[in-house]
Amino acid sequence: MDAPVPFSRRVAVLGATGSIGSSALDVIARHSDQLRATVLAAGSNVPALVALCRSHRPDHAVIADPARYAELRDALADAGLSAIQAHAGEAALDALVAGQACDTVVAAIVGAAGLSSTLAAARAGKRLLLANKESLVLAGALVIAAAQASGADIVPIDSEHNAIFQCLGSRQAGAQVRRIILTASGGPFRGRSRASLETVTVAQAVAHPKWSMGPKISVDSATLMNKGLELIEAAHLFDVGRERLDVLVHPQSLVHSLVDFIDGSTLAQLGLPDMRTALSVGLGWPQRLESGVGGLDLLAHGRLDFEAPDMEAFPCLRLAWEALAAGGAAPAVLNAANESAVSAFLQGRIGFLAIPALVEDALAAHAHAPAETLEALLAADGLARRFSQDWIHRTTGHAVSA
Ligand code: NDP
């Protein structure tokens, strides 16, 4: 490897109060000579955002909920942090992401709410550390085209896509790649029958056996929708069709993904399940940075197992394969219906098996909506969310906010 070259990056951490945000800030703090968090953004949790401002001293703090602007400004002043500029709302965040405040963006807002800032970073030519998979599922072709036009470097942060990026040395799969194999832990319900999942609780669904993550992605991992979203994400990131994508369940979560080449070589990336590795790759690439994650002791772990995913027990994975094949608005509808269903499940309004049932009905109703432009995709997203609210209302007799 070449000798390290000095570099410095000013980093906007979007979703700073979340699981990925906290891992990113941990890595940034380890490299204060090269990395500085200049923008911290959160959704609505002002106390958590101000606590992060106290430790990381950014130039800007942004709260997405405009109604909380005064609360943020006053809390920063009370904490003696008036030098940090307070902002609120999506437009303010997009402007900061696109402007001079940062050269690198960690896109770690959860859900389709992350699309606008992800697109702003891609259009502005920033180094984009992309954790927000939902923005690629909703509008992947537009995000990738924007990055290509501006010269933005996208480094995938999802551990599987980061593994593939490391195996390829880039985002170009090209003709020399025979197959990309995404690994899946199988989630907390691996090995269970579909019928036995009828009564699982929220606490059981978010208790992931290997990864510590936010609630939405934890439920997605339990339904295997997470792997489905990742298939669509991989198709966009590496420009491969579904015929070159595959999924293998690997319960130890040590092999993060594999790439088969046409010469018979298979490369894999291994490591402990800790997102700081992927974030270090994104922050340092092409250099390697110390991340705080220890090395892998394969003797201590003993074995690596692989098995086929059970699409009968976990229909969300099949639905995502179908949405990828259908193209058009289908992935946007899949994503929006899933976000609504997971939110209702987390609120205790619908059962676990209602998640795939709702997504399947939403796809049947709206997968053929127009999808040529961003406006059309956002309209399909909106249609699917309204459909989902009605569906949940009919099923439970309660109105549910998406
Ligand atoms: P968390 O739920 O832990 O954090 C979500 C973050 O998004 C919080 O900072 C939250 O702010 C913020 N947020 C929520 N809604 C909005 C909004 N409308 N506008 C702006 N910010 C908002 O999620 P994770 O960190 O687990 O996941 C983040 C993303 O990264 C997801 O897309 C997920 O799929 C992806 N990812 C996560 C992995 C993980 O290990 N956690 C692994 C791979 C990908 P607030 O605290 O104020 O609500």
UniProtKB/TrEMBL annotation:
Presence of the UniProt keyword Iron-sulfur in the record: no
Positions contributing to Mn(2+) binding: D158, E160, E230
Cofactor needs: Mg(2+); Mn(2+)
Residues engaged in binding NADPH: T17, G18, S19, I20, G43, N45, N132, E134, G214
Domain (DXP reductoisomerase C-terminal) ranges: 270-386
Residue numbers binding 1-deoxy-D-xylulose 5-phosphate: K133, S159, E160, S185, H208, S221, N226, K227, E230
Pathway field: Isoprenoid biosynthesis; isopentenyl diphosphate biosynthesis via DXP pathway; isopentenyl diphosphate from 1-deoxy-D-xylulose 5-phosphate: step 1/6
Domain 1-deoxy-D-xylulose 5-phosphate reductoisomerase N-terminal: 11-140
Domain 1-deoxy-D-xylulose 5-phosphate reductoisomerase C-terminal span(s) in chain numbering: 154-238
Enzyme Commission designation: 1.1.1.267
One GO MF term attached to the UniProt entry: 1-deoxy-D-xylulose-5-phosphate reductoisomerase activity
Keyword Metal-binding applies: yes
UniProt entry keywords in alphabetical sequence: Isoprene biosynthesis, Magnesium, Manganese, Metal-binding, NADP, Oxidoreductase
Catalysed reactions, semicolon-separated: 2-C-methyl-D-erythritol 4-phosphate + NADP(+) = 1-deoxy-D-xylulose 5-phosphate + NADPH + H(+)
Known role: Catalyzes the NADPH-dependent rearrangement and reduction of 1-deoxy-D-xylulose-5-phosphate (DXP) to 2-C-methyl-D-erythritol 4-phosphate (MEP).
Entry similarity comment: Belongs to the DXR family.
Name by which UniProt lists this protein: 1-deoxy-D-xylulose 5-phosphate reductoisomerase
Lineage of producing organism: Bacteria, Pseudomonadati, Pseudomonadota, Gammaproteobacteria, Lysobacterales
